[in-house]
Design a protein that fits this description.
The complex is a heterodimer of chains A (250) and B (261). Chain A has 250 residues and is of the alpha/beta class. Chain A has helices at residues 40-47, 72-79, 97-107, 113-126, 142-155, 172-187, 199-205, 223-228, 233-242, 246-249, and strands at 2-11, 14-24, 29-33, 55-60, 63-66, 82-85, 160-164, 192-195, 208-213, 216-221. In chain A, strand 9 (208-213) and strand 10 form a beta hairpin. The model of chain A has no long low-confidence stretch (mean pLDDT 93). Chain B has 261 residues and is mainly α. Chain B has helices spanning 7-18, 21-47, 51-66, 69-86, 96-122, 125-133, 138-168, 180-191, 194-223, 235-253. Classes of the chains: A alpha/beta (250), B mainly alpha (261). Bound molecules: adenosine-5'-triphosphate (ATP) and magnesium ion. Adenosine-5'-triphosphate (ATP) binds at residues 11, 16, 34, 36-42 of chain A.
Chain lengths: 250, 261
């Protein structure tokens, strides 16, 4: 289980997250929606401490961290509980696809090279890149790079994988292949928090949808509840803007 | 002036000059070692924007970039013992070579720090975040992700620095160190065949520069092998990299002899 309590974050005087509480059950796929600047990225980055929250508590699996008293060691511990898939892939450019996936296993999890290699090859095959093991990121398409990014995240066997708009940097024809991989791993019961603007994906795959605006969670619920019967005015406005066709179904 | 030109002297001088090549290379090697260490020490406060140290580092770089190396040599040779005397350290008896290596080292360090700073800045921050996200410590992220890529970016600038340094060492003889240029000067004075001595000297510098350049190019190729592309579709990334790298090279290179940017 992942539980965020009272997560608060400001950049200077600009408060970006205001006392966020969010609970994610094991195996759940949570989709976070919200307009630009609402704090979605910042929230994900706080969960694995790429941003330091000013206040609040993060529980991942059996590890609890109070943001007010987090030592460097606590932060390393926490980070090992989650993995992140970035909008810009952020692959290690000087390493091959295989080395990208192995890196965390060898350096952080201290697996032997052979063990890491076997595991990494299996994962790259799973995301459909069994033939690209030795390709460098500069030799891969965006969709392929993102699938390496997903394999790299899976390799760590984290409690939760955080996806920040995993398909929004991709050419439209490559979005499908990446979403298909995310769907596949969602079915395997891996806990995920996904920020995305892909409404179709959110409807099909999510167990739980969260709508954020202005640094707070405005509304949350099942996809059916949130998409078909939103309660809050801000949610309705947002959904109307992003999916005009929804007007029919109400 | 001098004796009539005689090409045989050019060849005659080569082995004599080569006997002092070791000294020249010793100065280059020693200064590079000092320069790399100093370069990191100066670059770090600037990269991490550590308040006071950052300003000191900038002043340091400005000084070494903005004053002639010859003056730096004299300043350190005559000035350093005086300053250390205040701390009751007597180094006036230390060999000249020590002063020469310290000066060239500090000088190279200033340029090296700019190279390190620019190269580290050129590696995209996202990869470091990805490294943190897989659970690496900041040290691991720096040495495993940042450094190898920064080095690949830095190598071309670094090779320019090494070659500039090689040529700059020709001024060491003004403090009386018997390196190649000093030797050429002496040989010329003895025989009055100055031109032949200098031609011979130029030849050696040229061959050494070219060899160093070749070696460093091989290193660059090795470090940049991840940028080789096999499909035309993905050249864009490479071109972008190249242009950003060119910008960086330009900003670092233009500095040689200029002042702080
Ligand atoms: N490092 C930073 N320094 C200062 N302000 C920041 C920083 N990162 C984010 N912000 C601000 O915080 C707010 C929330 O940003 P965030 O990136 O979390 O939004 P988002 O919901 O992910 O938006 P988008 O849909 O555009 O990705 C924005 O107003 C942004 O300008
Ligand atoms: Mg965002």
């Amino acid at each position: 289980m992942i539980q965020l309590t009272n997560i608060t974050k400001s950049f200077g005087r600009h408060q970006v997250l205001n006392k966020i509480d969010l609970t994610v059950q094991k195996g759940e796929v949570v989709v976070i929606l919200g307009p630009s600047g609402s704090g979605k990225t910042t929230l994900l980055r706080c969960v694995n401490y790429l941003e330091k929250p000013n206040d609040g508590e993060i529980l991942i699996g059996d590890y609890r961290l109070n943001c007010k008293h987090a030592s460097k060691k606590d932060i390393y511990q926490l980070r090992q509980k989650s993995a992140m898939v970035f909008q810009q892939y952020n692959l290690f450019k000087h390493k091959t696809a295989l080395e990208n996936v192995m890196e965390g296993l060898v350096v952080v999890k201290k697996l032997s090279k052979e063990e890491a290699k076997t595991r990494s090859i299996a994962l790259l095959e799973k995301v459909g890149l069994g033939s690209k093991l030795d390709a460098y990121p500069s030799q891969l398409s965006g969709g392929q790079q993102q699938r390496v990014g997903i394999a790299r995240a899976l390799a760590l066997e984290p409690e939760v994988i955080l996806f920040d708009e995993p398909t929004s940097a991709l050419d439209p024809e490559l979005v499908g292949e990446v979403l298909a991989v995310i769907r596949k791993i969602a079915k395997e019961g891996i806990t995920m928090i996904v920020v995305t603007h892909e409404m179709g994906f959110a409807r099909d795959v999510a167990n739980h949808v969260v709508f954020m605006d202005g640094g707070v969670i405005v509304e949350e619920g099942t996809p059916v509840e949130l998409f078909n019967n939103p309660q809050e005015e801000r949610t309705k406005q947002f959904l109307k803007r992003i999916t005009p066709e929804l007007n029919y179904s109400i | 002036m001098g004796a009539p030109f005689d090409i045989t002297y050019v060849f005659g001088y080569l082995p004599k000059l080569l006997s002092t090549l070791g000294m020249t290379l010793l100065i280059v090697g020693g200064s590079l070692l000092v320069g790399i260490v100093v370069g990191f020490l100066i670059a770090l406060p600037r990269l991490y924007r550590i308040p006071m140290l950052n300003t000191l580092a900038r002043i340091y770089v400005s000084f070494f970039r903005g004053t002639p190396i010859l003056i730096q040599l004299f300043l350190f040779y005559y000035g350093l013992p005086e300053i250390l005397k205040l701390a009751h350290l007597d180094i006036s008896k230390a060999p000249v070579l020590v002063f020469v290596i310290i000066t060239y080292g500090l000088h190279t360090g200033a340029f090296m720090s700019e190279t390190i700073r620019a190269s580290v800045t050129a590696v995209d921050r996202g990869q470091v975040e990805a490294a943190y996200a897989v659970g690496m410590t900041s040290y691991q992220a720096f040495t495993r992700i940042m450094l190898p890529q920064a080095m690949a970016i830095a190598v071309p600038v670094f090779s320019n620095l090494v070659i500039a340094l090689l040529k700059d060492t020709s001024l060491a003889f003004s403090l009386g160190v018997m390196e190649m240029t000093g030797k050429a000067q002496t040989l010329g004075s003895l025989t009055q065949h100055f031109i032949e001595a200098y031609i011979s000297l130029a030849l050696i510098y040229l061959v050494v520069s070219m060899t160093l350049e070749k070696l460093l190019l091989i290193a660059e190729r090795r470090l940049l092998r991840h940028e080789e592309t096999d499909s035309t579709g993905h050249r864009r990334f490479r071109l972008e990299q190249k242009s950003s790298y060119r910008r960086m090279v330009a900003s670092v290179d233009a500095g040689k002899g200029g002042t702080e940017v």
